[in-house]
Amino acid sequence: xxxxxxLTYEPERIHAAAIYxxxxxxxxHFDDFLTHGLKLPRYDRVALPGGPASLAGHTETHLEExxxxxxxxxxxxxxxxxxVVLIAHQGCAFYGARLKLPEAYLEPQQRIDxxxxxxxxxEITGITEVDAFFARLDLDARRISFDxxxxxx
Length: 153
Ligand SMILES: [Zn+2]
Description:
Layout: E1 16-20, H1 27-37, E2 44-47, H2 62-78, E3 83-89, H3 93-98, H4 103-125, E4 129-138, E5 143-149
Parallel strand pairs: 1-2, 1-3, 3-4
Antiparallel strand pairs: 4-5
The structure holds zinc ion (ZN).
Zinc ion (ZN) is lined by residues 21, 23, 50, 89, 92-94.
């Protein structure tokens, strides 16, 4: 039997995209932040393991990078993208498992990667409005907060 969503469909685009990790434990929090925190409902999602890490020039992410670059170019053309939001998250398994970084090195590397990814997005798309955030976990309170990360040169 078919399932019909109770959510209303709005055809209007918001001309913004977010690039973030596909980790399902934080997906709803990212959605909440983009929709309510940044007031970008219906933003386009570019979700893949590690998110912005794929645009930071790691040799391990060469294939992913090609895909994300193609996707961004498509979104600029077809969806008239004007703004891009990058999100890295605390304890991202991609950094530990794929890039083999020890826990203590994760956040500093993720912050460097956000800066590199922002440069890459600006270079690929010509979009100047690129913002970045670090999603921080409070395991005791079971909450996630989003710290802005400066990515302007
Ligand atoms: Zn992750």
